[in-house]
Amino acid sequence: MKKDQILIPLPRSAFLLVKCPNCGAERVVFSHAKTVVKCPNCGAELTRPTGGKAEILGEIVRRLD
């Protein structure tokens, strides 16, 4: 196979900027987080682990690539 034909796989995970639904504070979280991530201001859950991809409970502002 030629060098220019080899495709580099892209990761399925990413860092996300998530806005808290209660207070509006923003926090960077990992899309496949294995622990509960809470808001730094009010303590509300932003992500909940599900075994693979984390369930995002806040609003995703943007993907940080």
Walk me through what this model shows.
With 65 residues, the chain is mostly beta strands. It has a single domain (14-60), classed as N-terminal domain of TfIIb (Single Sheet), CATH 2.20.25.100. It has strands at residues 15-19, 26-30, 37-38, 45-48, 55-56, 59-64. The mean pLDDT is 91.
What's the overall geometry?
A: elongated
List the strand order in the largest sheet: 2-1-6
The amount of helix comes to: under 10%
Order of helices and strands: EEEEEE
* CATH topology (fold) name: N-terminal domain of TfIIb
How many structural domains does the protein architecture include?
Answer: 1
Q: What share of residues are in beta strands?
A: 35-45%
CATH architecture: Single Sheet
Q: Which spans of ≥5 residues are poorly predicted at pLDDT below 50?
A: none
Number of strands: 6
The named CATH superfamily: Ribosomal protein S27
What is the average per-residue confidence, as pLDDT, rounded to a whole number? Answer: 91
Short description:
This protein has 65 residues and is mostly beta strands.
Helix and strand arrangement:
Layout: E1 15-19, E2 26-30, E3 37-38, E4 45-48, E5 55-56, E6 59-64
List keywords for this structure.
single chain; 65 residues; 6 strands; 37% strand; mainly beta; 3-stranded antiparallel sheet; N-terminal domain of TfIIb; zinc ion binding
